[in-house]
Amino acid sequence: MINLRACSALLVLLGFGAASSVDVCSNWMVAPSSCPEFTGATIKGKEDRSSAEILSGINFAGSVSFEWKASNATIALPNATRFTLSLSGHAAPPKGGDVKMAEGAESANIPVMFTSSGGYKTAIFIITDSTGACPTVQHTFKDARTEALPYVFDKGVVLIPFIIVFIIVPLTQNVFFGLGFAAWLCRTIIARDPWIGFLDLFGRALNEEIKGYLGEIMIFMFLLGGVVGGCVRSGGIQGLGEMASAYIKDSFLAMMVTYLLGWAVFCDDYANTVIVGSVVRGVTDKMHLSREKLSFIVDCTSSPIAGLMPLSTWIAYELTLIRDAAASIGYTQETEYIIFISSIGKRFYAWFMLFFVFWNCVLCVDWGPMYVAEKRARAAGDGSGVVNTGDKSIQDWEEDQPIRMKKNIPARWLNAFIPFVCFIGTFLPFLFYAGVQKVTMPVATCEPGCYGDHEITWDSPAKDILANANNFAALRWAAGVTLIVQIVFYAVQYDKTRGSRMKGCLLSPAETIEAQLNGSKLYLEGIVALLLAFTYATAMRDLGIATFFADALGETLTPTTLPTVTFILRSLFALSTGTSWGTMGVFFPIAFALAQTVTKEPINSDAFTSELETTLAAVLGGAIWGDHCSPVSDTTILSAMSSQVPLWDHAKTQLPYAFVVGIYSILFGYLPAGAGAPGALMIIIGFFLIPVLHLGLSKIPNFGGPIEVYCPEVGECIGEGPRGVMNSIKKNFKKSSKSQEAAQEAAQEAAL
Length: 752
Prior knowledge:
Layout: H1 4-13, H2 18-30, E1 34-44, E2 54-55, E3 60-70, E4 83-89, E5 99-101, E6 107-112, E7 119-120, E8 123-129, E9 137-140, E10 151-153, H3 159-172, H4 175-191, H5 194-211, H6 213-233, H7 236-245, H8 251-264, H9 269-286, H10 291-308, H11 313-329, H12 336-344, H13 348-363, E11 365-367, H14 369-379, H15 394-399, H16 414-437, H17 462-467, H18 471-491, H19 509-522, H20 524-543, H21 545-551, H22 562-577, H23 580-598, H24 606-629, H25 634-643, H26 647-674, H27 679-698, E12 704-706, E13 708-711, E14 716-720, H28 721-751
Parallel strand pairs: 2-10
Antiparallel strand pairs: 1-3, 3-6, 4-5, 4-8, 7-10, 8-9, 11-12, 13-14
Helix pairs in contact: 1-2, 3-4, 4-5, 4-20, 5-20, 6-16, 6-18, 6-19, 6-20, 7-9, 7-16, 8-9, 8-10, 8-13, 9-10, 9-25, 10-13, 10-25, 10-26, 11-12, 11-23, 12-24, 13-26, 13-27, 16-18, 18-19, 20-25, 21-22, 22-23, 22-24, 22-26, 23-24, 24-26, 26-27
């Protein structure tokens, strides 16, 4: 081996300058005097997580790591492409040829595609030296979990459980069986043994879900169920319904109030579905509004509103995803908050669904399964048609509910209003507190300063505090405070005529706690459905569903089609897994990488930023669209649960509406926006075109039509469709005018 001083002296004698001879010799001494040796290899899916299962016919991201070992290789002239990384075995050669490696590098990347499936396959990484000075090095990839050759599945296998769910659930009309069977099927495919799949599902998978993100949701749902139980037992829900009935006179107003409440509870989609559904259910039942329609309005306002609002639990999650995805491609032109705000004007599905719900209420027409449900609700004069009770009467169905109002107590609306206001009023302060405190286990050990590389304090911008917040901790704190308020508030409403000591309380502390426990049972069925849905979703991700959909994008995307294809594939993933947040977490990095690949503009340019905003909006829109179409979605389950309607009845009536709005979003939103149309213009056009589409579908014979506006004051309907809505407005406007005139006359008489 020649040292640097001797090398430089030799080059000076050959005519090189002293400075250049040192540079050339330094380059010579980096790699040619050593040879590469493998230290490891990985294969990752396109969703940027270690793929649990490998699929054939799909390019996976292969990565190898190696060290440079000393050797007796002779010195050759410097050559940056001297070493080549290639593939052998059951792996296809990478498109574009083998990968050239820079000398001195510690790792190299190469796309890996297995050409066959149905067994254990080999992928051999090979490093060759074009000069022949170093020997050829080979490394066979092995599964890190089993230290064996990877088992390769045909890529079509991921669709089997996905399709099975949408066959079994409609046939059996039982989501529990459909989800459980599909989760077992996923585990059976992965294990390639039905017995091992069964053991894995019930022995590990369910437990793992409870220990994770789902556990936080379950605790929150039990706590909020307790709040609802206390409100029901104390007579607050009934009192709220009676009070609202004085102002909500018919089914049209009941729909509009439900819609507006969805906007009022904008802070969180879970809290929105549970609170709005629970509060207005008693009122909508009196107005003979079907619970399918109630759950549709609740479900289709919760996620879109939370996703659009710049102050909600969604922004806390989305800002983190945007920041990490932007960093992965080196994007620095705009902050994550500016990208989020700019994308609001391009979230077409969220806007169009909110418009659709509004016009559905205003026009009072329906079609498809929702039309059947609404006609059933209006047909029963005693109100028993509001829910499909099967063979039971409405009285028997209500008797089966775990919580009812206590006998011989007044129905005061404040007993429900104050707890709900307490929950909503404390949630946002707790959310900001959680953002500064950064909850850990135990709480006493946590300190500010956990958000990225910046210290988070009360002086930090609100967007940074929210991005750092644990939203489920804030929800649980707010629910916990509300439970305590209920215990005290119901106990201090004392009346000696009811009895002495604790018997005189509206509800004694023991009775309130019992009511809260029984209220939690209201959501037990939904929590079990969520557990099965999350288990199924995890199994689908392990099977490689995200990799399959990412590969389906192909290499033919253009800037015009990128938002549309992104929207469709994200919705398919959300449809198959039932989680909008999970969809965003998986596909944000993919979407940013695709925008970088497809868009020919420089990364930190205005043109690229615009394309990035549209693609980001498509990810969020597709996540919500798939969520609304899926019978296994978390918000679908929670909406049915709070509205007290069978899950399948809610899913089948909402699916056609969500599907049509999604198609409309593609044609009049993402396609034009991809071609450069202003997002605001498309949103305005959508507001006026959606009612035309809705009315047109309702005109199809035996498929849709106008719905009667029921008024309990007169005990009959006051019209149907738009005419019924106009009669409702006229009737209530006249009453309001008469009330004002009476008040003015009374004031004049008092003055005299």
